[in-house]
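Exercise 7. Given the components listed, write out the predicted structure of the assembled complex. Treat all entries as one system.
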Amino acid sequence: MPYETPPRPPRHVALYDIPLSISVISLFCYLFLNLLLANKLRSSSDDQAVH
Amino acid sequence: METLLVTLLSNVFGIEGLDFATPAALWLLFLWPLLWVLSGLNQLFGGAQNDDLTQLQSQRQLVVKHALIHKMQSFGTVKRVLKWRFSVVKMGLNLLRGIIIISLAIALAQPEKIQELAPLPQQKTVRDIVFVIESSASFLLPDYQVDGHSETRMNVVKNVLDQFISGLEGNRFGLAIYAEQAYTLMPLTSDQTAARLNLKRLKPYLAGRTDGAMGEALGLALKQTRQDGQNVNPNQSESDTLKRVVVLISDGLSQPSRLALSEVINYAQLLQVPIYTIGVGANSQVADKRLYTGLLYQALESDSLKAIASETQGQYFEIGSGQDLNRVLQKLTRRKVCLMKRHRDHLVMSLCMTFL
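Answer.
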């Protein structure tokens, strides 16, 4: 009877980096878009004030 | 509920064997709709002025009072387009907010893919087994019955050892024989073919007639295990001890060993190598049913074998047949299965908490 090696425990491959990367990218997009929009709205209202 | 969420996410992402280390964090998925509802209620009861963007939008709306203002069609179109663009951007921001919350919740739940791994092929030495086999004249005694025929002790031992060695890949085997003198028939080797060929060379009378060199043979076997175990270390681990074994196959002592067995036992205790002893032959002279062979019948003397086994943390076995010997050898090679602890990564938890 051949000598069997002991069964190996299942390997747990961590996948948390995928959602974490998505959230970081989304966060930057959100901040950038928010800033851009706020800036645009503010500048246009300033323009109106000048008129 | 958590199980349902896990199953749902596994199906959505299409990953087989997807699991979550902390599935409780998936409850945070409901944070987005909750925040949406709260925001809606806030707008409904608190007015639209609470939102910064809405405030800014209302500021930029031009209020013009003129009698003919309704005739300025283009102004109304511009206003509608601007409002539409604003709501699209606002929706995009809401969507991004949702993506951030959902992905953070999933990251906090620590998703992991479980991969079943096949057992590794056996590559390294599992165990060193040195067999010390008696080859005195008493091993010519045909007191075993195999398939209805009488078989000598030596043939029975050789056949079973041959099967045993051929079945254990990855182990190393050594052979030492003794009778009047003790010799190393084969040093430790993982070459099964060489081991089996050397086993065929084994014959009674190869080292003499009597069995006075049991102590010396055990010393030779212990020395072989020491050469591979290198230095004598009293703090060596249990796994190291289990890897080196001496198996003595004998019918006991018919005359005192030249090298005192107490010395051998001391040496084995120093090296922490267990000596398993296997008694071959019948227990009493009554078993001698031969009419005439020219040999004095020698029954099994088990006291010395028991003493060696008990003093060196080994075990004594007595075999009545070839099957018994096979069972004993299988018992000697039983292995312990190590259970590995599952490690979890807590780095992700601290990272996500920082973001939240």
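Discussion: Residues 2-116 of chain B form one domain. The beta strands of chain B are 18-20, 111-115, 128-134, 144-146, 149-151, 172-178, 182-189, 244-250, 275-280, 316-319.
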